[in-house]
Amino acid sequence: MAPSAPPPAAPAAERTDAPAAERAAERQARTQRVGQKPGTLTVRPDAPPPRLFLMLYDAQGCDEAEYTGRYDELLAAVRAQPERRYWLDVRGYGDLPLIERLMENFNLHPLQMEDVLNDDQRAKVEVFDDNRLFLVSRMAEFTADLEIDDDQLSIFTGPNYVLTFQDDYEDCLDVLRNRLRVANSQLRQRPSAYLAYALTDVVLDHYYPTMAAVGDYIEELEDGIFGARRERRLLGRILRVKKDVVRLRRLVYPERDKIAEILRLPDEAVPEAVKVYYRDCYDHAIQALDLAESYRDNISSLADLFLSDQSNRMNEVMKVLTIISSIFIPLSFIVGLYGMNFQHDDGHGHLLPLNMPELYKPLGYPILLVILVLIVAGQLYYFWRKGWLSSDD
Amino acid sequence: MAPSAPPPAAPAAERTDAPAAERAAERQARTQRVGQKPGTLTVRPDAPPPRLFLMLYDAQGCDEAEYTGRYDELLAAVRAQPERRYWLDVRGYGDLPLIERLMENFNLHPLQMEDVLNDDQRAKVEVFDDNRLFLVSRMAEFTADLEIDDDQLSIFTGPNYVLTFQDDYEDCLDVLRNRLRVANSQLRQRPSAYLAYALTDVVLDHYYPTMAAVGDYIEELEDGIFGARRERRLLGRILRVKKDVVRLRRLVYPERDKIAEILRLPDEAVPEAVKVYYRDCYDHAIQALDLAESYRDNISSLADLFLSDQSNRMNEVMKVLTIISSIFIPLSFIVGLYGMNFQHDDGHGHLLPLNMPELYKPLGYPILLVILVLIVAGQLYYFWRKGWLSSDD
Amino acid sequence: MAPSAPPPAAPAAERTDAPAAERAAERQARTQRVGQKPGTLTVRPDAPPPRLFLMLYDAQGCDEAEYTGRYDELLAAVRAQPERRYWLDVRGYGDLPLIERLMENFNLHPLQMEDVLNDDQRAKVEVFDDNRLFLVSRMAEFTADLEIDDDQLSIFTGPNYVLTFQDDYEDCLDVLRNRLRVANSQLRQRPSAYLAYALTDVVLDHYYPTMAAVGDYIEELEDGIFGARRERRLLGRILRVKKDVVRLRRLVYPERDKIAEILRLPDEAVPEAVKVYYRDCYDHAIQALDLAESYRDNISSLADLFLSDQSNRMNEVMKVLTIISSIFIPLSFIVGLYGMNFQHDDGHGHLLPLNMPELYKPLGYPILLVILVLIVAGQLYYFWRKGWLSSDD
Amino acid sequence: MAPSAPPPAAPAAERTDAPAAERAAERQARTQRVGQKPGTLTVRPDAPPPRLFLMLYDAQGCDEAEYTGRYDELLAAVRAQPERRYWLDVRGYGDLPLIERLMENFNLHPLQMEDVLNDDQRAKVEVFDDNRLFLVSRMAEFTADLEIDDDQLSIFTGPNYVLTFQDDYEDCLDVLRNRLRVANSQLRQRPSAYLAYALTDVVLDHYYPTMAAVGDYIEELEDGIFGARRERRLLGRILRVKKDVVRLRRLVYPERDKIAEILRLPDEAVPEAVKVYYRDCYDHAIQALDLAESYRDNISSLADLFLSDQSNRMNEVMKVLTIISSIFIPLSFIVGLYGMNFQHDDGHGHLLPLNMPELYKPLGYPILLVILVLIVAGQLYYFWRKGWLSSDD
Amino acid sequence: MAPSAPPPAAPAAERTDAPAAERAAERQARTQRVGQKPGTLTVRPDAPPPRLFLMLYDAQGCDEAEYTGRYDELLAAVRAQPERRYWLDVRGYGDLPLIERLMENFNLHPLQMEDVLNDDQRAKVEVFDDNRLFLVSRMAEFTADLEIDDDQLSIFTGPNYVLTFQDDYEDCLDVLRNRLRVANSQLRQRPSAYLAYALTDVVLDHYYPTMAAVGDYIEELEDGIFGARRERRLLGRILRVKKDVVRLRRLVYPERDKIAEILRLPDEAVPEAVKVYYRDCYDHAIQALDLAESYRDNISSLADLFLSDQSNRMNEVMKVLTIISSIFIPLSFIVGLYGMNFQHDDGHGHLLPLNMPELYKPLGYPILLVILVLIVAGQLYYFWRKGWLSSDD
């Protein structure tokens, strides 16, 4: 099947560039939803039109096509081969009637569908009465603006399908699609609950490169603190990354809780054979939390170092000021002393011998110079003993 | 029915303008209640007279009227149509006999009624023996004085009614009243327990715009820190908003606990069909807590930034002082040196050739100027190498 | 019955004036008790002699008298009317034989009696085998020295009596005594367990005026921070109040736990009809804790503000120093330059035209003045642009 | 029986003087034990030789003797009167064969004996299969070096004996020995489990004088902060005491947990009649923890005060500098101005009337003096308005 | 059997020298594993080739040999004596086919084998269905770069063997190997589960020397703070060690949880006779955590001390500046005053008697000198009273 031409990617790209603006928009959307009937489906005006991707597979093979705008054809394709499993991947929510058809066809609860569209949910799992699952994962990315951009992946599982929703055309799931395309992959041979696990796992594992990027940036900041030309905005940057690390921790915590809850679900909802993999997943979540914790500690230490260094630099400035002032202010006094105009004679020819007789001594000036040098030497010795002359570096 | 003329709104408005004064009044009221018999009903002297609003509804329609001052008519209206459900909304407590009649007619416990009147309760739920509920919610508002103003909404549920109390004429429930006015709304078709849920949900959702307002203000503060003319009171403002965020967290925590307790109640008290909505509510409470936590982190970072920036500005002041002093104090010494009056002759015609011979050299002055320039250049080079000449911005 | 003359109140008053000294005495008493046989009764040497107050009541009436020094008469009075309930209120422990007779008559355990006399117990509840209760409450007061003075109220309940012990003649229970004197009060009609509840409740409610006093003082401190003449000891005072708030929290926590434990006791120990009131009490304890928490936050913010303000004031001092020094030090150099004595002629009639020719120019001085003014103007402009000239207030 | 001469006390005294050195030795001992077979008994080379004390008692009397070096005689004495209870008190571990004989005779587990010798165990309780107990308590002392010196007391209970081990000749148990010597004491009449309780209780109660000493020292530090001649090392001392308080808290926590565990033991291991006393003990542990917590808070406040005071002193230094500099630097400029040598005539008889005509005015100097005084007055007024002239004290 | 020549140790040594680089490599490896099929075995390119060590033992003796590169011979040797127990120690993972053969021969789960190769697992225990255990321990070392270098030890237990994996040729297990070589050691006589315990115990005990090294370093830092020539990088070092201590705590926590979990395992997985040793181990883990906590407290105090000392040094610098400036700036003003050129006569012979008559007084200069000395004395007295003249040391 020939995939239809994809809609232009620009609007989506614009949106993901600015997580702060996105959060502000979410905040506003949140406000407008106050008092709404629960289960009311609303789509943000800037939501891109949905693209539909279908991967229809069994142990033998995998057919793959984009059905954007051709939902009826998609349904027909799926129904034509009822014995095959499939993954229907919906990206973008900008078409409410289509969303409602999907909800009806797949028998989804309006409250859950509302959670899909209001894409600021924490990671969680909910079980339908018929043991189908509704899973929410969050895909986190460390952007160039030092922000954590996180998108929601909503997963519905059924007996022979997995249905995923995301509000963006871009995601981190290609690695999984490739595994599905490979002949004899486990993914193709196992039940669709295993595909749901694999999706959860890929998203969770994706926290590692995100955290690695954060970790690299933290090391960069560390280097920056002791660099010669420290920037004033460094602390701002340190605190921004701290915010990111805290955010990551807040994203991973619910992931861990979600997996713990999956492990407690009855075997009808999640087969024991799949749970063994979720257990592995659980370890990963714990490790990711550990990493986030240690990043947080590192950043706190960085902030402490920054502030101490700031104070250190002030110290050094003060030392220079103090040394120079302490040396030259007394000298200035002395030379000022001999700049006074006390008269040696009173203008009427009477000598006033006590008025600055030094000025009339043949060696007055050389002796004074020697005294000045001795004063400087004494002071330098004092400062050297205090350790103020040696640089702190 | 023609609603009676509402009492003038002014006193109520005055009260809500000053949450601090309100809190002081509460503190005083609290003090006066010490040692009172439990269940003693006391009304604050400044309580506005109660207004009574009735919404009498069933799936077919909704009759709405204000019965302020006409409680008997209200009772008659309700009893005339016993098969319809109704919401009786009492605003203002300034009429103790009426309150006591309500207590008697609706069979409310004095301790609970005391909780209604002493409107500083945490969100909570209590169950009557006959499975009626007593719910307390708190409606929070971010005022122009940067305070969180929170009013209590007390909800009693019965088999076919919901009875609400609030001490103020203004509230955030109009959005719900509108939903009740709409034909075919779920609210009309479902049991009154669903209306109680909807009230709880609206109040909880109302935390979002409140938090959004706080969030916007935090971003304003963030901009303020790096602005050119930083105000000294900025930290005071940061800490005040921190107080608000902490207060919001303290308000939402009991809301979450309340909903968790509702979810654990037996189905006779809260039908399973309504619990599914409370579960959604629970997620919202968690998200609101999450938001409050991240605001708190942001504000702590802001305060750190403020203090570091303060120290930075001091650093800059010190650098200017140090550079200027370090350059000019030694120069002043040198020029002071040549301002000394050591005499080249002793007044009796004897030359004292060692006394400041420089002053008599043809190039004395130009050479000195060159020396001064060299000293300045040397110092500037030293400061430039230290990075003190480049601005930190 | 004519109450016997009360012992002079002075010693008791002296003791309550100085909680710090009291604590030191407690510390010493504690030390001396190390290794003592458990249940050893020791009375502090400064304990005032006990006064005995009896309130003998039933639904019909209440007889009240002081039996200080007449314990046998008291016993006779109680035994004469066995069908009436009574409250025996012992204030002051300075008479060990009397204490031991009370212990024997009321069948109290030595360990509990030891807890009564060592009056530094946390709030707690203990149950006798015969379902009598031993309750400890602490009555807290905010003194003029900014300390929390807390006295212990020990309550023993019996089938038809309540026996209370306190080491002081003053307490906060008069409000309850008045309720007992009122005809038809619930207190008289209900079992003595209700009186025990009422005592617990009054003491707990008494935390509110104490906290209100602390709260008022905190607001006073807040005003003090921005006042013109800030005192250096302000932080000391802030931290002392913080200590008080922490102390209050530590006092209320066990009260809450005590009430929670009472609620878990079997109905034989505490009738369900009384428990409903303890539940109300529990809410109050939670609210008091909430209040203490928010006071603690406020005080932390105050301390931060104080320190930032301290740094701000230093900043301002530095700015004044920097501006004045930066302006006048260079000027001083320049005028020093032209105070040098380089000679225009060498004393032998030879002109040295390069030595300070400016001094001989007709407009030398006016031009220099203009240059000085320009330098000042340039500096002022620089400082103005930096925002250093505008006050931070 | 004549007690054998005690070994010289000097080495023991030396060891307890230096808890830091002791801890270093422990650290090293710990390192050497890595990889050892569990249950390996090793004795530190500096362990003093064991002294054996026996108290053989029943309700009638108490025989007491030291059997140091005469273990066989001790065994004989005990076996001669099997119906009496006894307390065998071993102090010092410097004789491994003796330790091993004890282990064998009293049927002690090697792992527990290892815990006795490696005397850095936390307080704990272990139960043998035959319901005998192994208890570890820690005796804490506040030394003159501001350190917490804590020694381990290991207690083994048996049907009719208590066996205690300590590595030191000095302890805090004499108060208990005296109680055992007193005729008719409860200690003699009750089972040996009660003696074990009494030991535990005495050690726990001994935390109170230790904490009182710490508390007194904290108050001393408080006074030191506002003293005129504050020492620079004060913060070091504050932080050292903080360390002690934290250490005390860490010592008491396991004591509390130990007692809580004892209370949960079956009655065969600890009779109910003894548990009632442990419950009292539990309250003491909680109070000791409370005390430690409040000390910790006090110390944190002290450290804050110290730092604020430090900053305050700097502030004052800066103010003095600023006031003096601000007053005199401008004055110096002005007098420098009139120290310039601009010539009133050009040396060739031409008047240069614009060059410093002020110098030739009859009132030039007096007017200048007035101007200088006015400048000083203006500045003083400015500083007075800023509040810089009033001392902060 | 002659052990084959070991591969050159250099590469391994290089790797362990730089834990930071190692962590970066791990981070990258982690990133590359995202989306991989779970259970995928990947070996890092720099992994050293595996060396195989076999210890074949029973109560009678212990045969020991290296089988590097001769895995088949190893299998034969083991199978030849099926009644003996053995420990197979694999060091280095650089040979994937061998790893896969081991996995197959010992029936290991791919997910667990993946945990072995991705050697950044937390300490944990997993139980196979057949009650075999998979244990992960981490061996920590305090390196010369002030980093904690931790290597993973993976332990598989079987009915009569223990199989260990580590990625490095060096370890801390030699002490255990020596115990196994000793005749009649418990290790040889007990089941292989006891050997697994012994391995766990040795690794856990190894934390003590590591912590002792950290503790020694902390004391060194403490000395450094008060040393005369404090280095600016000291805080950096303090914070690095803090990071290490936090890391140690994070390493020991899972060890403790692992042992707690082992204690909860059924007796079929871990015999009760071995559990008694694990209980001892648990105490050690708690103690190690305690130590880590107290180190953390010490380091926080150190950082506080450092910052306070920094501020103290600034204080001292400021005092020197202030004293010298305050003394000499006023003096300079006075001598400047008498350096002014106000003319005593107007050049035309008219006397201007008010212009600086002091200059013409016979004792002008001596009196001025006295005045200057008095000013200095007054200032010194003022500074002495302020306590600024005495050093703070």
From TrEMBL, chains A, B, C, D, E:
Subcellular location: Cell membrane; Membrane
Ranges where the record places region Disordered: 1-46
Residue spans of biased composition, Pro residues class: 1-10
Transmembrane segments: 320-343, 363-384
Source taxon at top rank: Bacteria
One Pfam family it belongs to: CorA
Protein name, UniProt field: Magnesium transport protein CorA
